[in-house]
Amino acid sequence: MKWSPRALKFALNIYGPYLGAGIRIMHIDPEWREMHVRMKLRWYNRNIMGTHFGGSLYAMVDPQMMLMLMNRLGKEYIVWDQAAEIEYVKPARGTVESHLSLSDAQLEDIKSKAAGGAAYRPSFDIAICDLEGNVVSKVKKVLYVKRKSPQA
């Protein structure tokens, strides 16, 4: 199913896990080149130490790269989340945000490496920052990309 950026933003902002964690999609580029995500610290998304719950920090950037890549590559490709890791750099207090991007150069590289029909696993480094720009968490996402076989 193909979503418009506006429809996907609306759907994600009312999606139960995002709504429950206080995660908000602030912007989706009309060309699927970037997404901005924000999460305020609330009583329901903080841990016992009074900082952001680590699962919520990861959830705020979980599907974005896959969604952007799916929409940029189109129906000729299979795109799945394959793996991820998160590093907590410093305690996350207050509002945090992430600006995820997928450049034209990255897209062309992925297309060229998946052109022969073999699976390609690009990785993306994503920073989650406080409003002062300090990195609070680093996420590495690995996607699975494969060009579909042509239909006979």
UniProtKB/TrEMBL annotation:
Name under which the protein is recorded: Tetrameric acyl-CoA thioesterase
UniProt-listed InterPro entries: DUF4442, HotDog_dom_sf
Stored Pfam families: DUF4442 (PF14539)
